[in-house]
Design a protein that fits this description.
heterodimer, A: 262 residues, alpha/beta, Rossmann fold, nine-stranded mixed sheet, two-stranded antiparallel sheet, 22% helix, B: 761 residues, alpha+beta, seven-stranded mixed sheet, 27 helices, 36% helix
């Protein structure tokens, strides 16, 4: 039996369809799970993905209300049971607000924040690359990626800048909780590649156990060849099947599929 | 009752003013004589909305009839909220692209954030109510000089408002343009285009279906409140700063959060209706509120309607009946469904998608019935507050406005100017307000949500999406409308808007399928302003016929002027949708390979009028006439070259001219590929902007042969080189980095002087 993944849809979520498609494309059995579903019916799911959007209108802070949604009890239970939980963009903000990442000392409350972009403080949608900054096996979702893997993605957010107390950030870095950092197309890391002023150039956080990953940029928005702008797209010119094939950011979903079946 | 029949003109003028009605004396007397009694207050407000320019197109409708609206690509022409063009077939189903175009100019000038956001919200509903998935947005924007703090405030608010709404509902913004002109200082333009994807069998019409007498009218969405009262009439008046405070109340309040859920719930309703094989009616609430929408739904099927205003959910107590009837509270739509389906429909919105838990009093509710008798009846507090023949209400009025056609400015063609150094001019043209990079603006909009975007905004002349996952079918969208042409020659400006928008979709490889127009003009009661409008229609009609692309929907926005009487530059803004059977045959304008050959495909007609270089150098000149025969050949040749895989990159020559086009192609490639010109250009050749494409090809012999077969003019320009420079004869030699700096600097500080927006995105 194939693994079953729940794609959580809060009021205001907007990226559920493409996230579902990305899961289906890597062979996962996945379905949308609406916020008003009863959490008891979700306990048998093998993994959760929290997609992008503006859950509960990002009231208070992005992700703050959704983190207290009744449905999150099922997500917390899954995380505690070691099942993979992936949050993308707004989903990543929900995971930080719920304390599921970075969860230093296994304390589940907000310890850092994905906060308003710097310097302009504005929502920004721009193409980026992210580089795996931990040993692949440190996180169940990245275990199948090569060390230092570079993935294309779109940073499309207004609150994606990692911020926190200096000592907390130092621990986050020291304890290997920064799963991905922003980089250029060749994997070079510099301040120019960081689209939002994020501390330590962080694009994603992971918990200690390695089963909860909170990723700000969207890999599913550059996961099919026709979405690329580079050599891969040029190679697919004139070949519809190749142009419609998965590539690039789909690698993270393939990693999720591996993690779920492991 | 509004005392009409026994009131003299001064008394009636005063009572119209006190009631906030924009109807003229003549119109209100005509209503009373048709009804053979004085209208009630509710009726007066209903006619005020329905007979407004905004709803009735009373000055424009007979002119619009001159536009070509038919063709093999048209699935539905301009009779409802949106038109539909054929996209293609996939797995036995025939798919169409729904296109709608609207303006929200006055609200955006008065309350920029909310005005622009509700503009997006309104156009999305126009597409949604056809039964379509909303798949893309585009925003043509026109601002006053950004050095002016108020214009800057308006521009920033508009960009933030569009971002807040479009991003939240999860529809990608894939195209748009920004022009800055003195003429928009007091009256900005915010046009919004939305596209939808529809399976032909799933089209829902905005009319009560045959045999629907006795069916339920179901209102869905936000609870009615006081916001947006008098909106239709407001948008049909000249803006007066003194009334700004009162006008603010006419602007609606956006709720993209609720809309996000409302769209998803409506998609579920579409699927359920398809499964059950039902024919229903669905229409969005816009101008004229509950009254305008339900009256048009009923009249569209030849029926009447009876609405109980007490059954309309409200979020404020004691709202006057007129406010409930015609107020333009956002995020509402209305269904006409058979009563046996009503419980299922209510269940989808109220239980499955829990609208009442999303926003206070938001819900789906039965508010009335379709009637066989052709009258429109509103009840409130057990009394009849409106009862009029429905056709009188919805037919509106017609005006044959006087007009004086504009005289195009005329000037002798400028001297050849071969002595000018192109290298001195180029950076100044790149830094011009209409040429420089728009990155600061388009990055505010999510262009990739839904995971269907192949070319996002800022990457090409047109945006490109693959709307049906798994299918190679693609859809391109581009907008155009150049105010620099319009101030010199309104008719040619309209022609160029059509030609340019078509060329934009062709550049990425799509076949033009249909267009929409948003016609933004001044005061129709002023013969000179009206003449610009009439000339604009002539220009649009000529160009559309010559190039064989129909208009499938459109919008008219008049009274765009300040209280000082200055009309805006005539602004016919055209959006073109192109379709492509195979997305792998598309191309972007980014230079691809070092050592490939660059061509100019087509010629540029004589004249520099309205060009950026004319402004930079202070030249007076005529607006060039489009050469339709040449344009048809260029388009046919380029589309064939795309299909044959000969195009590495293509970009149409427009604002700034040929050298700017080349620079942009290099910038899109990350400024890592340079350009070596081996052709000598004069000022016209380098900077004229009304024709031709630049094409990069790796197979020059085949490309030359193809263009010769099509009889399309072709000029070899040079080569791409590894060195990041633009280099050419007579000392032209500038590093791309310097050109890029000139191009990006002007708008880098678009947000420099503001704090983060409160209503964040």
């Amino acid at each position: 039996m194939s693994a079953r993944v729940g794609i959580v849809v809060f009021p205001g979520t907007n990226s559920e369809e493409e996230t579902l498609r990305a899961c289906l494309a890597v062979g996962l059995e996945a379905a949308l799970v609406p916020w008003n579903a009863h959490p008891d019916g979700l306990r048998s799911l093998d993994a959760f993905v929290l997609p992008g959007g503006f859950a509960y209108e990002d009231r208070v802070r992005a992700g703050a209300i959704a983190a207290h949604d009744r449905l999150m009890s099922a997500v917390r239970a899954a995380a505690a049971a070691g099942k993979p939980v992936l949050g993308i963009c707004n989903g990543a903000q929900v995971l930080v607000e719920s304390g599921l990442v970075p969860a230093l000392d296994d304390v589940e409350r907000p310890q850092v924040g994905f906060t308003r972009n710097a310097p302009a403080g504005k929502y920004r949608s721009t193409h980026v690359h992210v580089k795996l900054a931990i040993a692949p096996e440190r996180c169940t979702l990245t275990a199948s990626l090569p060390p230092g893997a570079v993935l294309p993605a779109w940073a499309s957010h207004g609150e994606g800048r990692l911020a926190g107390e200096p000592d907390v950030l130092a621990r986050v870095q020291r304890e290997g909780r920064i799963a991905f950092v922003y980089c250029d197309a060749h994997g070079a890391v510099s301040a120019q590649s960081v689209p939002n002023g994020s501390a330590l150039g962080a694009a994603a956080l992971v918990n200690a156990r390695g089963n909860v990953l909170a990723l700000m940029p969207h890999p599913e928005r550059d996961a099919w060849t026709y979405m690329h702008h580079g050599r891969e797209r040029e190679r697919a010119r004139g070949d519809a099947a190749q142009m419609l094939a998965t590539s690039g950011g789909i690698a993270l979903f393939a990693g999720l599929a591996r993690a779920v079946s492991a | 009752m509004l005392r009409v029949r026994d009131a003299d003109d001064p008394a009636l003028t005063e009572s119209l003013r006190q009631s906030g009605l924009a109807l003229t004396l003549d119109e209100v007397r005509r209503i009373a004589s048709t009804l053979e009694r004085d209208p009630t207050i509710v009726e007066a407000h209903a006619f005020d909305a329905q007979w407004s320019e905004h709803c009735s197109y009373k000055s424009s409708r007979h002119h619009l009839a001159r536009l070509p609206t038919t063709g093999p690509t048209v699935m539905q022409g301009p009779q409802e909220d949106a038109g539909i063009v054929h996209l293609g077939e996939w797995r036995g189903k025939r798919y169409g692209i729904v296109i709608a175009h609207e303006s929200h100019n006055h609200p955006s000038q008065v309350v920029p954030f909310e005005g622009a956001a509700t503009g997006v919200g309104g156009i999305v509903r126009d597409v949604l109510c056809m039964g379509a998935r909303v798949i893309a947005l585009a925003d043509p924007l026109r601002f006053g000089p950004l050095e002016d703090p108020h214009c800057r405030y308006v521009a920033q608010g508009i960009v933030d408002g569009i971002a807040a709404y479009g991003n939240a509902i999860g529809v990608p913004t894939i195209a748009g343009d920004v022009y800055v002109h003195e003429g928009f200082r007091d009256n900005c333009l915010v046009n919004v285009v939305a596209l939808g994807l529809i399976d032909e069998a799933g089209i829902i019409h905005s009319a009560a279906p045959p045999g629907s007498a006795g069916w339920d009218i179901v209102l869905v969405g936000k609870a009615t409140d006081r916001s947006g009262f008098g909106g239709a009439a407001f948008s049909s008046l000249v803006l007066d700063e003194a009334d700004a405070q009162q006008n603010r109340a006419a602007v609606q309040v956006p709720d993209p959060f609720l809309k996000n859920v409302l769209m998803r719930a409506s998609y579920r309703a579409f699927d359920t209706i398809r499964e059950r094989g039902l024919t229903v009616g669905f229409k969005d609430l816009g101008a004229g509120g509950i009254m305008g929408c339900t009256a048009e739904l009923a009249a569209g099927g030849g029926f009447g309607a009876r609405i109980d205003l007490d059954r309309c959910p409200t979020s404020q107590p004691n709202l006057p009946a007129a406010v409930v009837a015609v107020g333009e509270t956002q995020e509402r739509l209305a269904w006409v469904v058979p009563p046996e389906f009503t419980p299922t429909l209510l269940g989808i919105y109220n239980d499955e998608f829990s609208l009442p838990l999303i926003a206070e009093q938001a819900q789906a509710a039965v508010i009335g019935t379709i009637t066989a008798e052709p009258s429109y009846v509103l009840l409130s507090g057990g009394e009849t507050v409106m009862n009029v023949p429905i056709d009188v209400l919805t037919r509106g009025v017609r005006y044959e406005r006087d007009y004086v056609l504009p005289i195009a400015s005329s000037a002798a063609p400028p001297e050849a100017m071969t002595q000018r150094r192109l290298g001195d001019i180029l950076p100044r043209v790149l830094a011009h307000r209409d040429v420089c990079s728009r990155r600061a603006i388009y990055e505010r909009f999510d262009s990739v949500v839904r995971g269907t975007t192949s070319i996002p905004s800022g990457y090409a002349d047109a945006g490109l999406i693959v709307p049906l996952p798994g299918a190679p079918l693609a859809c391109a969208l581009a907008v155009d409308g150049n105010p620099r042409y319009a101030v010199l020659d309104p008719e040619r400006a309209a022609e160029h808007a059509v030609v340019e928008s078509i060329r934009n979709v062709v550049a990425v490889g799509a076949i033009p399928a249909g267009m929409t127009d948003c016609l933004n003009y001044g005061n129709p009661e002023n013969a000179r302003h009206m003449g610009e409008f009439v000339a604009g229609i002539d220009g649009l009609a000529t160009a559309a016929r010559e190039l064989g692309v129909p208009f499938v929907s459109g919008n008219v926005s008049l009274y765009n002027q300040s209280a000082a009487g200055c009309a805006i530059p005539a602004s016919p803004i055209v959006a073109c949708v192109g379709t492509l059977a195979d997305v792998s045959r598309s191309a972007t304008p980014a230079l691809k390979k070092i050592g490939s050959v660059l061509y100019r495909l087509g010629t540029v007609p004589p004249g520099l009028g309205g060009s950026v270089v004319a402004e930079v150098l202070g030249i007076t000149s005529d607006v060039p006439s489009p050469d339709y025969d040449a344009t048809r050949r260029e388009i046919a040749a380029l589309l064939q070259a795309h299909r044959d895989g000969l195009v590495l990159a293509a970009h149409d020559v427009s604002d700034g001219g040929l050298l700017v086009t080349l620079c942009e192609m290099a910038f899109y490639a990350g400024a890592e590929v340079g350009v070596l010109l081996d052709v000598e250009l004069d000022v016209h050749g380098a900077f004229a902007e009304s024709g031709a494409f630049v094409v990069e090809t790796g197979r020059p012999a085949e490309f030359e042969a193809l263009c010769a077969r099509h009889g399309a003019a072709l000029t070899r320009l040079g080569m791409t080189i590894a060195e990041p420079v633009v280099r050419g004869p007579r000392g032209l030699d500038i590093p791309l980095s310097a050109l890029h700096e000139a191009w990006t600097a002007p708008l880098n500080d678009f947000y420099a002087d503001v704090l983060p927006d409160a209503a964040h995105a």
